[in-house]
Specification:
Layout: E1 6-12, H1 16-27, E2 31-38, H2 45-58, E3 66-68, H3 107-117, E4 122-126, H4 131-139, E5 147-153, H5 169-173, H6 175-182, E6 188-191, H7 193-196, E7 200-202, H8 203-210, H9 215-230, E8 235-237, H10 240-248, E9 253-262, E10 273-275, H11 280-286, E11 295-303, H12 305-315
Parallel strand pairs: 1-2, 1-4, 2-3, 4-5, 5-6, 6-11
Antiparallel strand pairs: 7-8, 9-10, 9-11
Helix pairs in contact: 1-2, 1-9, 1-10, 3-4, 4-6, 8-9, 10-12
This protein binds calcium ion.
Calcium ion binds near residues 13, 15, 41, 42 and 240.
């Protein structure tokens, strides 16, 4: 018998690649999306909420509650939107105005209610700056036990950053929130830029998405085509959607459990995720004094890109090679 769908809570800043992740999540029979919380990140919060609702309507997604959350990072001002995401933050698809509306409560309250109501602990899949999650963890420590795991797209392991030479966007946007989540003591899996950059489709494959029957596949194709044209490039990453693919199929990921510190100082390294790859023996011999101050996190070092390409495409009814 197949396993029951995994209950998840999605936190997004939609966001062109968040849109790909949402399409995979709502179409995947392996996932049960209980709530979607929005946070400022790729674009201002109002656009993030609007994009999320438009997309869910357009692909006739199940009626999942969507809530607006934090409008800015804990300490800093918003960074300017990255133009890859288009003027509206979601590839300028021109989708119709949404019929569905956000719930009348803050994202942190929707998280609280969803976790409180759940019979079993939920997996929190965070594809955005961690502001909502950090505030939730501080406000409701009694509900930490209802979180099975936090899976966060964020940070950079052995590859360069995308917002500064050393920092990835989600962590750089709100480094304090990232530090709070990574040091929460909850099980955390970090999906950094290293695997993020692995899973991509070429223009020929994108044409197959555009020609598919399912409007979700067509929409994914339009988003990826816009990404190709923006750079311009011969292929487009699925980005955040790779994180969702890993939640569906964790066997396709290679993880390392390492202590991580987020650099919270000002300057060029602010928002850098610093991984300690020294051996356990070395740590215990020479560095016992800081072991308790750094959280051990499951870091996704790399993924089986073809496996996740097939998973993403196949869930949307598209067959690709590889
Ligand atoms: Ca995102």
């Amino acid at each position: 018998m197949d396993n029951p769908p995994l209950p998840i809570l999605l936190d997004v800043d939609t966001g062109a690649d968040d849109a790909l992740a949402l399409l995979l999540a709502v179409r995947s029979p392996a996932l049960d999306v209980r709530a979607i919380t929005c946070v400022a990140g790729n674009h201002p919060l109002s656009n993030v909420v609007d994009n999320t609702l438009r997309l869910l309507d357009f692909v006739d997604a199940p009626d999942v509650p969507v809530a607006a959350g934090m409008q800015q990072p804990l300490l800093e001002a918003m960074r300017p939107p990255f133009p890859l995401h288009g003027n509206d933050g979601m590839a300028d698809l021109g989708l119709p105005s949404p019929r569905r509306k956000p719930v009348g409560e803050h994202a942190v309250e929707l998280m609280r209610r969803t976790l409180q109501d759940a019979d079993e602990p939920l997996t929190v899949v965070a594809l955005a700056p961690l502001t909502n999650i950090a505030v939730f963890l501080r406000m409701y420590p009694d509900l930490h036990a209802k979180i099975a795991r936090i899976v966060s797209m964020g940070g950079t392991f052995r590859v360069p950053g995308n917002t500064s030479p050393t920092a990835e966007f989600n962590v750089r946007q709100d480094p304090e929130a990232a530090a709070m989540v990574l040091e929460s003591g909850l099980p955390v899996t970090l999906y950094p830029l290293d695997p993020f950059r692995q899973v991509r489709f070429n223009r020929g494959e994108i044409a197959d998405f555009l020609a598919a029957d399912d409007v979700a596949a067509q929409t994914a194709g339009r988003i990826m085509l816009q990404m190709c044209d923006y750079f311009p490039a011969d292929s487009a990453l699925i980005g955040d959607a790779g994180t969702v693919a890993m939640v569906v199929d964790p066997e396709g990921a290679t993880t390392e459990r390492l202590p991580i510190t987020v650099d919270l100082a000002g300057g060029v390294n602010r928002g850098r995720t610093v991984f300690d790859e020294r051996s356990q023996k070395s740590r215990s011999t020479h560095s016992h004094w800081w072991q308790t101050s750094q959280a051990a996190i499951d870091v996704v070092a790399r993924v089986d890109a073809d496996r996740y390409r097939r998973l993403f495409a196949g869930t949307l009814g598209v067959q690709v090679g590889g």
